[in-house]
């Protein structure tokens, strides 16, 4: 016998559905070729605007992300350089109006991931202010 009651989605199903509806904003953060570093900001800002337009036209969310985690190491200088890149990328995405951030790579290697996420939230809030 089949139930006539409508299926109520679980939290996990709702999260999966939202994730499927999300559009990711690509980031270009290749910094090894210093002769092209001047292109990073305009390319990222243009990519964010295109992604935002698509997200709004399709009724989906736009997720920001950070990249260049491959540069992270145990050395303090590396960590400071990567955090500066994260700050820059978070600011660009927040200023573009992203709906959320994928923070996995932003907290990679963090001593305190919750503290790293709190810092990202603060940076995003400051960029939007």
Uncertain residue segments: none
Q: Report how far the terminal alpha carbons are from each other.
A: 57 Å
Strand order of the largest sheet: 1-2-3
Structural class: mainly alpha
The assembly state of the depicted protein chains is single chain
* Biggest sheet features: 3 strands, parallel
Order of helices and strands: HEHEHEH
Structure description:
With 129 residues, this protein is mainly alpha-helical. The chain contains four helices and three strands, in the order H-E-H-E-H-E-H. It has helices at residues 11-21, 40-58, 76-96, 113-128, and strands spanning 23-24, 62-65, 100-102. The protein has a three-stranded parallel β-sheet with strand order 1-2-3, with helices on both faces. The termini are far apart.
Outline of the structure:
With 129 residues, the chain is mainly alpha-helical. It has helices spanning 11-21, 40-58, 76-96, 113-128; strands spanning 23-24, 62-65, 100-102.
Helix-strand layout with pairing:
Layout: H1 11-21, E1 23-24, H2 40-58, E2 62-65, H3 76-96, E3 100-102, H4 113-128
Helix pairs in contact: 2-3, 3-4
Sum up the structure in keywords.
globular; mainly alpha; three-stranded parallel beta sheet; 52% helix; 129 residues; single chain
């Amino acid at each position: 016998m089949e139930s006539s009651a409508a299926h109520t989605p679980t939290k996990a199903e709702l999260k999966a559905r939202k994730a499927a509806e999300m559009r990711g904003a690509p980031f270009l953060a290749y910094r090894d070729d210093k002769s092209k570093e001047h292109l990073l900001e305009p390319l990222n800002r243009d990519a964010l605007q295109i992604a935002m337009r698509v997200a709004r036209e399709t009724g989906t969310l736009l997720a920001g992300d950070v990249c260049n985690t491959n540069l992270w190491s145990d050395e303090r200088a590396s960590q400071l350089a990567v955090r500066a890149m994260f700050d820059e990328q978070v600011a660009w995405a927040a200023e573009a109006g992203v709906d959320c951030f994928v923070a996995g790579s932003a907290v990679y290697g963090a001593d305190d991931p919750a503290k790293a996420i709190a810092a990202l939230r603060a940076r995003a809030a400051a960029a939007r202010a």
